[in-house]
Every structure is written in structure tokens, then in C-alpha cells.
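Pipeline run #58 for the internal structure catalog. This entry was flagged by the ingest filter as a single-chain record with no existing model, so it goes straight to prediction. Upstream metadata was stripped on purpose; only the residue string is passed forward. Reviewer on rotation: M.T. Logging verbosity set to normal.
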Amino acid sequence: MKKLLILGAGTAGTMMLNKFANELDKNEWSITIVDEYEIHYYQPGFLFIPFGIYNKKDVIKPKRDFFPTGVEVIISGIEKIEPKENRVLLKNNQVLTYDYLIIATGTKIHPEETEGMTNELWHKNIFDFYTIEGAVALADFFRHWKGGKLVLNITEMPIKCPVAPLEFVFLADWYFTEHGIRDKVDIQFVTPLPGAFTKPKASSILGDFLTKKNINLTPDFSIARVDNENKKIVSWDETEIEFDVLVSIPTNMGDEYVKRSGMGDELNFIPTDKETLMVEGYNNIFAIGDCTNLPSSKAGSVAHFESDILFENFMDVIEGREPRAKFDGHANCYIESGFGKGILIDFNYTTEPLPGKFPLPGVGPFSLLEETKMNHYGKVMFRWMYWNLLLKGKELPIESNMSMAGKRL
């Protein structure tokens, strides 16, 4: 019997588990999935917790609710992969062998990588919202805050969901307006990028939104340390920015076992062919989602589009063919802009976000690079789609590779 081993039961790993459990012959294949935690988090929902839109219960469910029958589930951390021996060592001392391996262990924040970040002000005046603990702590803080200097700082790229920091400051503008203290809150968006976003066209448009909302943009800021005593962030060139509350998007890194396995780059991301999704140097290992070093966004939509490509290529490989499907870096992101409106962008490795209608040409119902109420509804509806369709490996009415239909050059 052939063995398929999946490491990671987050978004990407769970999708692949369901796809293969429905397709592979149970008399010929055994499927095992490994994850350290029993709880599944709807990570896009973390953004809404600081503003009281969601609470903790809205973003968590048991992972086993999404596992198909007939698969082996192991709850354990991973010690390391030994790819030459086709085996994985777990922290519970189990040794798992495999014929084919899919790595989907994602990325985590590492605030300790920045000097001073996790000192005495951590989760008191310095917060993240990329963890459930950080998002809940920030919600508690905002409920009693009377105003001052709110600084959002992206430590370095890449990060999970590159639009989330922009969404955060847009929602902060709305939240403090609703609470009648917007005139008492100075919001500053501080980024190592030359503009508001990674793609120049979208960066220009989103930068205009920052200006309209009276949010100050500080580009090209590379943080070196946090001065807790004086409430300042300091760049490598000694530029200082004061804060009353700092919302940090810390360094994102792949799992530590990747380093122990000798398979990752300096941030523990796994070198992966950007088209076939096969791990470089191995013909029986694939990687998907945030754990890879692909030049695409680390986002749930990307993992979904990748899952279709990986599935096709896996089936080719096990049947003795060269992998034929090619991933084009497709990303599709709803950007919550506050006041019941949102923006939608759709792009890939080579094509910038363009205006137009999505997904139906001329009809939509969503508008690209425009702020509309319908785009906001798309963002809200995604949570239901995530729990009920996406995690279960169901087909969604969006092509895996980006379509130019409905877009205006």
C-alpha cells in the first residue's frame, strides 16, 4: 500500500486531505495527516476581533470537523524531515515513512526577532493581531483607549495576507470615528516597502485611500528595535517614530523543523518550484501555502488556487508522467476599507491588479480596484465559504489561474 503523508492541517493541508481522500483508492493508499494543534483558526477573522466585529468563538472550530473518514490523524509537533530516507520524525517519538509527502505547515510570527518587541510593553501597549492572543488583547485595549498615536508597523516582508495591515488601519479609522474619538487618534502606517502595497498600481490606489482617510504613510522604514521606555520604534538609520500604541506585524517565518531538516531558506521557507509546486530537488515532495518561498501572496485564496494545481500534478506524478499543470501566482483579495465598504484586487506573478468586474465580465457582481458595498459583502460571505466549501476541498466558481475576462487594461 502506498503512503501519502501530509504535514500541517491548516487551510492548505486540510484542503489537500479532502481532495485526495475523495480521489485516491482506499485499497491502494493510506493517508496520514499530522498537526500540532486540535483547533482550527479562521485566520482572516483575527483582523475583525480588535474592533469588536468578531469574537474568539467566531474564528475557531475543531480540526476534526473537517477531516474525512478513513484517514489517520496524528496530533504532534514535527522534529524533522529526513527526505533522503522518506521519513518524518515527530516530537512524540513516532517515525513516519511515506511514498509521497505534502508540506503545508504555514508560517508563524516571531516578534522576538526584533529587539525590544517582546519586552515589558508586549500585549500592554504593543500588540499583534496575527495570533488569537494578540487580537483579543488588542480588543480589550481598544475598549478603554481614549486616543493618542496609533502606529502600525510591518517589520519585514514576506507576511501572511499582505493586505491585512492596510485593512487594519482602514478599520481603525472607521472604529474610532464610530466611537467619536477619531480626531483624537493619529494613525500612522509604517512599512519597509516604498509604498502602501507590494504591487505598484495597487500601491498607488491604496496610498490614495490612506490619504483620504487621514492616515499617514511612512515608507522605506526598516525597524531595528523597539524602545519600550520612550515608546518609540527605531530604524536601522536611527529614524524614530513615537507611539502610544504599536500594532506590529512581526517577522514571519516557517516552522523550526524546516531548519532542522536542512530544507529551508534563512526564514525557514521551503524552496518550491513556483509553477509545479514540487519541492526543489525532490520528485516525491510537494509544498503548498504559506510554508513555501514562492513569490506569491501568503493568503488563503492563493492556497486554494494552488490546491487545484498541486492535485493535478500529484496525479500526474503518481501515474508516471511529468507534472503538466502550472501555477501562475493567482491571488484574489478582498480589502475591508471600513464603513461597510471594501476593495477587491485580482492579480498573479506577472499581471498587476487591474480595474474591471469580477468574476463575470461586465456583470460582477464585484468591482476590481473600486470601493463598493458589494466588495464588503464578499469579504463577509467568505467566512461561510471558508468553513463550508473551501476547507472541504469543494470546487469554487473561480479559476485556479487568473483570467483576464472582465478586466480593463
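catalog note: The radius of gyration is 21 Å.
catalog note: The chain has a mean pLDDT of 96.
status: ready for reviewer M.T.
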